[in-house]
Amino acid sequence: MNARQSKSQNLNENSTSDLIKYNSVPDRTVPIVAGLFIACLSGWWAQSIRNSGGLSLPYARADITIVNFLCVLPLAIVVTEWMQGVLKYHSPGLFKIVNLIALTGTAGILVFLFSSSHASVALSEYDAWESFILRPVIAFWLILSLILLTGRFFRTEIPQGSVRAGKLVWSTVCLTALLVPVFYIQSRVDEMAQQVDEYLGSGRLGDARQVVREVCILSPWGKIGGQPADDVARDLDHDCFGVERSLAYMNQQTSHNEESTYHRARLLAILGEDQSAIDLLLPWYDKSTVSPLTSQLLGNLYQQQQHWAESQQAYRRALQAWEKLPASEQQQAGVVASWKGIAFAERKRGNYEAAETAYLSALSLAPTADQHFLLAQYYEDTQQTAKAREYAHQAMALDATRYGQSGQKLITSLQQQHFGCLQVWRNGEF
Q1: Residue 119 falls within a domain, yes or no?
Q2: pTM for this structure?
């Protein structure tokens, strides 16, 4: 009787042990930390290449890199758990081969990243589609390899018979890895297309070319202004080549006075080489007889670099120089541009009263639709709803073709931000 009880007790203990072993949930702390680490590291790497003038293929931007790596992380964790909990015990030889392939492929990817030169030309549609495929593949491969490596280092092996992912889990992680980055990238491409329009409107061809190249990588089917992105990229390459040729010719001249220096700096600004342009202008800016054009261009360059205090000082100096000149069309345009630059810099610095004064000064000199809409945007930013609505309507009335849609969009935004504010909904005039 005692033998039977002992045997039954041993069977129950073994069954309980097997049940606990089968239902044990693996600790995912190490793979999650490893995935976050490689995602942040890859994002930093992509951004460093972008800052150096490359395209950080195939991701183009740091945020896109991080999104791709994070979305692939759940899939990599599930695959790793399956490999360690199933494949390792049923086919240990195949498990070792897969580990070796993963680590060898990762080593090859790293060697390629550190040894290849940064791409700086627009890609063809075929290359862009290749980049589209490589994004999830590279992210999955690197994270999977790092999880396998850290699993061995920290000895977080998955026991045989651990919880196995069902079909719902597999389908969810696969869809997350593939679809979420696609939707995110498309939203970023739409923003980048608007950014290209802004750069082209301000004559910054170099910056526009950089963004269009990124669009060519991220969206092979993308369009900018109704034209295929690769066509826009080729046009910008041609235009920038003409600017670069003019700049090279000017650099060959032996005498460089302030006027020639200004024109060279302006060409550098068009190409997006802001710091080089600033370095050219600073020696002339330090002189008391500096031209208002030089100060104004320097203010714009500081603005592009988000150096708001320096931008405001340069625009102030340009304003003082313009006001000393005889009245003319160019002089008035220079004064208005200086006030607008001052207003924008003060707004970014948080000096809202000074910014409002500058905007109103520009409006008093040039009561155009542009000035009215700038004030509308300023009042929207500072939560002055009634004034924002008033100036938006005036801009729409002065130039319905240009500001009809954007003015309506601004007013709609005011409605959404200040729902229930009777001043916005008053009269129903939208």
Answers
A1: yes
A2: 0.73
